[in-house]
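Field: COMPLEX_INPUT
Field: COMPONENT_COUNT = two
Field: RESIDUE_TOTAL = 753
Field: MODE = joint
Values follow.
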Amino acid sequence: MYKILSKCYLTDNIIKMEVEAKRTSDSCLPGQFVIVRASEDGERIPLTICDYNREKGTIVLVFQVVGASTAVMAKLEEGDSFQDIVGPLGKPSELCEMDVEELKKLKIVFIAGGVGTAPVYPQVKWLKEQGVASDVIIGARNKDLVILEDDFKAVSDNVYVTTDDGSYGRNGNVCVCLQSLIDEGKTYDKCIAIGPLIMMKFAVNLTKQLNIPTIVSMNPIMVDGTGMCGACRVHVGDEIKFACIDGPEFDGWLVNFDESMRRQAMYKTEEGRKMLELQEGATHHGGCGHC
Amino acid sequence: MEVDVMKKVPVREQEPQVRAKNFEEVCYGYTLEEAQAEASRCLNCKNAQCMKGCPVSINIPGFIQQIKEGNIEEAYNIISRSSALPAVCGRVCPQETQCEGKCIRGIKGEAVAIGKLERFVADYAMEHGLKPKKEKESNGIKVAVIGSGPSGLTCAGDLAKLGYDVTIFEALHQAGGVLVYGIPEFRLPKERVVAKEIENVKALGVKIETNVVVGRSVTIDELMEKEGFRAVFIGSGAGLPRFMNIPGETLNGVFSANEYLTRSNLMKSFREDSTTPIMKSKKVAVVGGGNVAMDAARTALRLGAEVHIVYRRGEEELPARVEEVHHAKEEGIIFDLLTNPVEIIGDENGWVKAIKCVKMELGEPDESGRRSPVEVKGSEFEIDVDTVIMSLGTSPNPLISMTTKGLETNKRKCIVAEENTGKTSREGVYAGGDAVTGAATVILAMGAGKEAAKAIDEFING
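Field: COMPLEX_OUTPUT
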C-alpha cells in the first residue's frame, strides 16, 4: 500500500512523488489534503494534494524538506512505500461547490508562492476541465525555485512567473506582479492565494485595497487532521476555526496571519533540534540551543 | 494467605514517588494466590446484583467461582462470552459505581475487587495465549464498523462470533481509538494490553482498515451501495475538543487535552526517541476535573512539570474516578479547586505566562444535581504557568452525520439512536458509544456496541 510510483526533485529541496492511495484518489477534490507517515515511528505530516488520477488510483504529493520528518520522507525512493496516507481531509475548495455557469462569469486569479504552488495546480486544472479560465501568478525567490511552470501553462493561458530577484520572468514579489497586472488593465473578481503565511498576509493586504475577495489555504501544525486535537486553531474574524475540518481554505480578509505565524513556530526549536540530531548523528555536540 | 472478609486483598502498586517519574503501569495487579484469596470473599449470590451493574452483563459470580477453584481458563471463557476487552475493562472501568457498587459485601465492608479479578483473569489469558471462541460458522455477510474504539471493537467482535464478515474502518494509523490516543500508558499499557486485546478481536476474523476517514475517504452510502456492506455500526466516538472561549486560548502553550494526550500516547512523544514533539513545560495548569484531566495532569507531571488542576467546583464534585484523584494526589498534583479561569495571559512573544482565575463558591444544585459554582466578586488572581491544557470535555465529530443523508442528530451533534438497539433513523445503520451519548466511559460504549451487534444480527436475519 501507498507505494511510490515515481519521484523527482523540482528544486534542490522540493520533491514530487506519485503515490498509490486508492481511497484518497477516489474521493479527493482540489483544496483537500492528506496526512502521511513515512515510517513506523514517523510523525504525522499534513501535505496538500497536488494532483490525482482516479483511474490509476494515485495522488501526487509535493513537499519541501524543512525538518527531520520531511528529511526522512525525502529518503524514500521509487518502489518504497509510505507507512500511512490518510485522506482526503478538509473541505474541498469552495470553487468546487459553485455553479459552473457562475464561475465562468468570474475573472479569477491564483497567486501561488513557493511550495504552495503545488496545491494551486489541481484547482486551476479542475477549472480548466469545467471550461473555466483563470490567470495564475507564480512567485519564487529566484529562477531555481520556480516549480510546475509547464504544468500550469498546460491548464492556463495566462501564467505570470515572477521572481524576487528578477532572475526569471517578472521582477518582484507576487504583490508587485498583481499590482502591475491591475495597472496594465486587468480586472479580477476573485483571488485564491496559497503560499507561505507571510506571502498570503501581504497578498491579502493588497487585495483588500484592490477590493478583490480572496481565499487563502492554511497549513498549520496538526496531529490527527480530523478535528480531534485542535492544534490547528486559527482566528477567522472573531471565530476560532479548526483548519483541518473547517478549512483549510478560509476568507483571507478575516484570517489572523500574525497569530498563525506565531503558532507555526511553536515547535520550531524542537524540530530544529531533531533536524540537527538527524544530520549530525553522533557528531552532534550542541549548537541547537537544547543540549 | 489470611483474608479479612470485610476488606479487599490489597493490590500492589508502584510507589508514588517512583512512578511520578516514569510511564510504567501504576498498578501491578493480583498474583494467583491473591486473586484466589480475594475470590473467596465473593458470596456467590443467587440473585447477583453485581451483574445488574455491568453494562455488558458479565456472569461475575460465575467467573469468580472458577478463580476460587483455580480454573482460570474457564473463568476467561465465561468473561470473554460477554466482553471483548477484559484486560482493558479490568483497568479502566468505574467499578465502584457499577458492579462493585452493587456488591452485597460492600454493604458492611468493602466490595469484592471485581475489577482487579477481571484484570487478573484477562492478563493470565494473554500470558497463556487463550483466545475468545467463535460461536457460529462464517456466513459471509458483510458488516462495516466505523471506529476501532471500545464500542466498535465490541460490536465487531460480537458480530464476528456470530459468523459475520466484519471490517472496521479506523481514521487514525493505529487501531484502538481512545484506548490508544486518550488513556495513558501508565493506566493502560498499549503493547502489552491494548494491542493484544485487539489481536484477539482480529483472531475472530475481524478485518481492520486503518487510515479511512468515513465521511471523507468514503461515505456510508458508498459502503452500503458499492462495497456490499449490509449494515453499518457507527462507533466514531466524541473526538472534538471544547475550549472555554476566554481570551488567550490561541496563545502558544495552550493545548486541548486531546492534543497533549495524543502526542504522548499515540505518537509516543514521552519517549526521547519520538519524532513527534511535545512541549517541555515547567508549570502546567490543567483546566477541568474529569478522568481526562487527571490523565493529562499525570502525563505532564511525568514529563517533569509542576502541575495544577484548576477546577471550578469542589472536591466532592470532581467527575474523575476516586481512584484517579487519589493516585494524582499521591503523585504530587496540586488541586486548585473552586477556581475558574477567566483569561490566559501571554508574554511579548505570544507564549503563555500566566492564567488569570477567579475564586468560586458553591450555590444551589443545578440540573445535574451538583451544586453550581458562583463567582466570588473581586477575587481575581493569577497563577504563573507556561502551559495550559484544556480538558473540558469533547463532542462528536459531525463529519459522518454531515455526509450521511437522513441520519438524525440532536442539538448536541450526537447521533440519535434507539436505546437497547442502537438503531438510527437510517435503515441498516446503527450507532453507539460516545457518538450517541457524548463523552462517557469505555464500558458504556462497549455495552452499546454489544446491544447494536445483537440488533444488527436480528435486522439481517429478519
